[in-house]
Amino acid sequence: MSKRFISLREVGRQLEIPPSTVVYYKDKFQQFIPSSGGDGRRRRYPVEVVDIFRRIREMFTENWSVDQIEKELSLKFGRLRFDQQSDQSNDQHETFGGSPGFSREVGDILAKMADAMENQSLFRNEIRALRDEVESLRRERRDVERDYATKVSALEAELAALRRRMASRAGGESINFPPTEFLASPLVICSEGEYLGVQGKGGRSFSLKDFVRLIERKMSESMAVETSWRQQDGHWVLVVRTEDTGRKREQNVVLVAKKTVTPSANTVTEIIRLNIDGNDAPDALLLTLFRQLRAVFNG
């Protein structure tokens, strides 16, 4: 056997195995892991143990049982353990003046203490490495969030500039369009003092943005669709104009909505009026509409 020795930390480094895994293998199959003297961090292992740990790793990866691994180690590495035990027995016999039983008992106690100290050191190093990794991930996350915020600010500035250019081309008139928060808030109707909305899978609420997309998609299947927004008396008014050129038929849908804070302190977008071709939709029709939306949204 080679006279070169290494530590468990070096075994883990060579095989790219976490220290805790190396310790687990050593404790689980200690009868096949030869070592040489020393306590705690001074305990060393012959370089041949790298092959033993590598084989153990391979067998665990291949889902071998503990019994199967022990049989394999016994056949392939049993001689190493036998030689090591013989060397230890001779060393202990010489150390304690010819009392094998007593020397073996003391040797076992010292070995357990040394293993515990070494394991503790390895675990501490692994915990330190994990903490460093967590801190690195946190820094990476902060960098990503900062980069995202920078890009969002740049896009918002670009959008504002685009709106100013379009307004200038339109003769100085400003372009009205609801803010993102208003479009993304849960869409509700108020019936007899109760706010009713539509919630889909995953807890996501049906929003005004979803509603507009639904109208545009449905109407555009057979008609030309044009949408526009304007503000009126603190409300947002959506006008959807459709034209069926084949049948020479037009249809206008006007939706009036406002920002509302419910008694439970939730910010929502409330439909306060829905007009189709000059006729206001009654509350019963809105309730029916929301029931159909619930079926479509959860379908």
UniProtKB/TrEMBL annotation:
InterPro entries reported for this sequence: DNA-bd_dom_put_sf (IPR009061), MerR-type_HTH_dom (IPR000551)
Domain HTH merR-type residue range list: 7-74
The keyword Nucleotide-binding appears for this protein: no
UniProt keyword annotations, A-Z: Coiled coil
Highest taxon above the source species: Bacteria
Protein name (Swiss-Prot/TrEMBL): HTH merR-type domain-containing protein
Coiled coil: 113-165
Biased composition (Basic and acidic residues): 84-94
A Pfam family this chain is assigned to: MerR_1
Region: Disordered, residue numbers: 84-103
Molecular functions (GO terms): DNA binding
One GO term of the biological process aspect: regulation of DNA-templated transcription
This protein's record includes keyword Iron: no
